[in-house]
Amino acid sequence: MNRWAQTSLLDFTGLLAAAVVVYFSLFGGWVMKQDFISQIPASLLQLNTIFLSILIEAVPFVLIGVLIAGFIQIFVTEEHIEKWIPQNKFLAVTMSCVVGACFPACECGIVPIVRRLVAKGVPIYAGVGFLLTGPLINPIVIFSTYMAFGNDLKIAGMRMAVGFIAAMIISLFVSLLFNGNQLKEAHHHEAAIQTKNRKIPFSIRFWDMLKHSIDEFFDMGKYLILGAFFAAFVQTYVSAQALLQVGEGWISSTLVMMGLAFILSLCSEADAFIGASFRNIFPATSILAFLVYGPMIDLKNTFMLLSVFKMKFVLQLIALITIIVFICISFLN
Q: Where is the chain membrane-spanning (predicted)?
């Protein structure tokens, strides 16, 4: 079975799954009236609701991400990458962070884009800079933060400044600690495939872009579903109230808010409204840690990263993000 046939089969499976979701969405009210539904534990229904809400929130951004990834695969060549990326590591990191800051993307939608860029030859440290700043300090996120905190320009500005500095430091550490693109073997082999299609008609290249985007979507989608399920499971069965009781001092409250950001797996366009709800419980610096840490790394994003990059790299990246964000926040106390 060729690759496009496999993709078509995946398309059919995806459509079938979508039909099941639509069925339960349309007829869910009727099902809820039946006696047997009362026998289902409330926690299981809550898990189902949280799981679907995470998916519905994330899928549009993943779709945007895979379309951009498909465009990069077909229309962006290795020669373009060599011209755009400075040879100097510091300049490359700075450029990637600046571009990420101007690029509206969710933390789950950014993964396929970074995967494709790294496969095309972007250094891993520049890819990390883009990965961290894209979901964190793009214009949409900053505006939503400003609105969520009652038109407070200070908290929005602090999120942007702390996030940018932390992303720069993390990316520079990555440039010192890691060589190579850190992609898994399958993706490394795929990266070696050259796209010598400049003379191919635009219509054919556009169709190839769509095919690559479909492949990317189903490749990323299964890990998004897995991550969303684990995030929903943890939110359902791990008591957030118990975590909140731990956060008394600024150290513990900062760690608790970072832990909540990881567990809740909120999209960065909406997390500010959740963070604002903790204003009467935790200090502003702890809430800032929540706003900076969550878009950089969360539970569902971790599964997607593990599907693309080597496990050792992902685990060390998570440790770097955690340590650097905590240190940056500690300077504000």
A: 12-32, 44-72, 92-114, 126-149, 155-178, 223-244, 250-267, 274-293, 313-332
Structure tokens at 177: 């600690």
Give yes or no for a contact between 237 and 82, defined as CB atoms under 8 angstroms apart: no
pTM: predicted TM-score of the whole model, two decimal places: 0.74
Residue 262's closest CA among 289, 225, 223? 289
Q: Which residue in 137, 148, 187, 149 sits closest to 313, CA to CA?
A: 187
Query: Residue 300 in contact with residue 54, Cβ under 8 Å?
Result: yes
Neighbours of 208 (CB within 10 A): 17
* Residue 47 CB partners (closer than 8 Å, separation 6+): 232, 233, 236, 237
10 DSSP β-pair partners: none
Determine the Cα–Cα distance for residues 114 and 65; give it in Å rounded to an integer.
9
- The string of pLDDT tens digits covering residues 205-215 is 777 878 877 87
Q: How far apart are CA 49 and CA 57, in angstroms?
A: 12
Residues 6+ apart with CB under 8 A from 142: 156, 159, 160
| Position 165, amino acid | I
Q: Which residue has the tokens 């979701």?
A: 21
